[in-house]
Amino acid sequence: MARSFITDKPTLGQKIRGGFSKFFHIFDNKLTIMIVPHSQGKVMNLQTNVFAMFLGIVIIAGILISFIFFNKNAINSNAEISRLFSENRETMASLDELRDENNNLLQTAKRFQSSLSQSLSLLGIDQQTNLENSTMQNGDLSSLFSSEDLAMGSVRETADIRKLTSYLENAVQPIEQIGKLLETQNSLFADIPSIWPVRSPQLHISMPFGPNIHPITGQWYVHKGIDMSTWRSGDPIRVPANGQVVTRAYDAGYGNNLIIKHKHGIYTRYAHMNTFRVVPGQFVSQGDIIGTIGNTGVTTGPHLHYEVHIGSDVVDPMKYLNIK
To answer: Exposed site from 58, 122, 201, 268, fewest CB < 10 Å?
Structure first.
C-alpha cells in the first residue's frame, strides 16, 4: 500500500512576512560596547542593539551635514555682505562726487541766468512775462512740496535740480526772442556794408583810412578809404551789402572802378580793379562777386581801394566792417 506525502509550500505573503521578520531581527540583535580606559580605571559596558546604533549614526551624520551646509551658507553670506559694503562705499563716493558736480552746475546756471538778464536788459527785451511764469511755477504748492522733500531728507540735490530746470525753462523764451531779434538784424546787416570785400588768408590793410603819406608823392594827404592787398591780382571782390551798380568806369587815378548804391543813402566805391563781373543797373546781393583785384590807375602794386560814402560824406569803412 503506497503512502502519499503532501508538501505545503509557503505562499508569497508568508515569504514577505518572513523577510521582514528576518530584517527586523537583524536590527534587534543586541550589541555590547566596551570602553576600556588606558589607566587602571573601570571598564564601562554599554548595551544597545543594531537599530539604536544605526539611528544614532544617522542622526550624527545629519547633524554634521547640516553644520557643513549652514557654515557654507554663512561664509557665502559674509562674502555677499562684504561685497555690498564695498559697493555701498563706492556708491557713497559717487554720490558725493555727483553732489559736487550738481552744485557746480547750479552755480553755473545762476551765472548764466544773471548774464542772460543783463543781456536782455541791454537788448530791451521785457522779462516781466518770464518772471510771472517763474512765480507760477514756484508758487505756494511747489514750495510746499519742496519743503516736505527737504524735511524728509530728500535729497537736497532734488531741489537743486528743480532750480536748475527752472533756470533753463526761464531761459528758453528769452533766447528765442534774442534769436528773432538777431534774425531781424540780419536783414539790416545785409543792407549795410558789414562784410569784407576781400576774403583771403593773405589779406592785409596796406593803407588805413585818414591822414597818410602818399606812397608816390611822399606828401601828407587824407586817404578816403582803405587799401586791401593780397600781394597778387585776380582775387575776387565781393559786394559787402545788397545794392545796385550805378557806375562802372575807368579813371586815370582810380583805374577800373565801380560805385554801388545801397539803402540808407550809402554808396561804396571799388578802385584799381582788374576785371568787372557786373554792369550798371544790375542788382547785387551781399557776398556776390563783382570783380577782381588789379593794378590799374595810380598804384604801387595790386590792391583794392575801398571807400564808403554816406550822402556827401566819406567815412571810415572799418566802422561798418566791425559792426557785426
So the answer is: 201
